[in-house]
Amino acid sequence: MTKEDKKAAKLAAKQAKIAEKEAKKQKKLEAKRAKLEAKKAKKNKNGVKASVEPVQKTEAKPEVSLEQVKETEVKKEENIVKENSKSSTEEKTVKKDNLANEKESSSASVNDKSEIKVQSATYSVVYDKIEKEWVVKKTGAQRAIRRVKTKAEALEIATTLSENQDANLSVHKKDGKFQKQR
């Protein structure tokens, strides 16, 4: 096989892959449009289906130059980068909203008698399989309060913490299953 034959074979293989990808994209688009149409139909109180433009089917072109393939690959990569940057900014705004909601919900609520109710904390005793240690953690915290070798030590520390702060205590087995609540 000559170099030209090899290039032609590679080009044909790439064209086939592109055609397959486009077919998959078309199927996904059709499924998305069907879902959208179903959602709009549910939202519409009158029961009239919302109009959605039909999906235009494109057939794979048999002759595609190597330059065109490279251009499409570059465009796809650029789109992926753009989507990733958009999703990260969306995640940041969602996280900010969630933090604001958590602050509102976790802040102390005031009764008519001006008494303050504070949510009590919960301490957990969990086994860390990686470090092979028992861990005392406050629920919702990322870092451990204390790490010890035995479960008895961890229970002793957690019970004193929960009694001093009038908090709940949840104990887990070595396999991670819930054991009891105190």
Describe the SSE topology.
Layout: H1 3-43, H2 66-106, E1 109-110, E2 116-117, E3 122-128, E4 133-138, E5 146-148, H3 151-164, E6 168-172, E7 178-181
Parallel strand pairs: 3-6
Antiparallel strand pairs: 1-2, 3-4, 4-5, 6-7
Give an overview in words.
With 182 residues, this protein is of the alpha+beta class. It folds into two domains: 1-39 and 63-89; 120-181, no CATH class. The chain is 53% helix and 16% strand. The chain has three helices and seven strands; from the N terminus they run H-H-E-E-E-E-E-H-E-E. It has helices spanning 3-43, 66-106, 151-164; strands at residues 109-110, 116-117, 122-128, 133-138, 146-148, 168-172, 178-181. The strands form two sheets. The chain has a five-stranded mixed sheet, with helices on one face. It has a two-stranded antiparallel ribbon with strand order 1-2. A hairpin with a 4-residue loop joins strand 3 and strand 4. The protein is elongated. The protein starts with a helix and ends with a strand.
Major β-sheet annotation: 5 strands, mixed
Shape: elongated
Number of helices: 3
Helix content: 40-55%
Report a brief summary of the structure.
The protein is α+β, with helices and mostly antiparallel strands. The protein is built from 3 helices and 7 strands, in the order H-H-E-E-E-E-E-H-E-E.
What distinguishing features does this structure have?
182 residues; alpha+beta; 2 domains; five-stranded mixed β-sheet; two-stranded antiparallel sheet
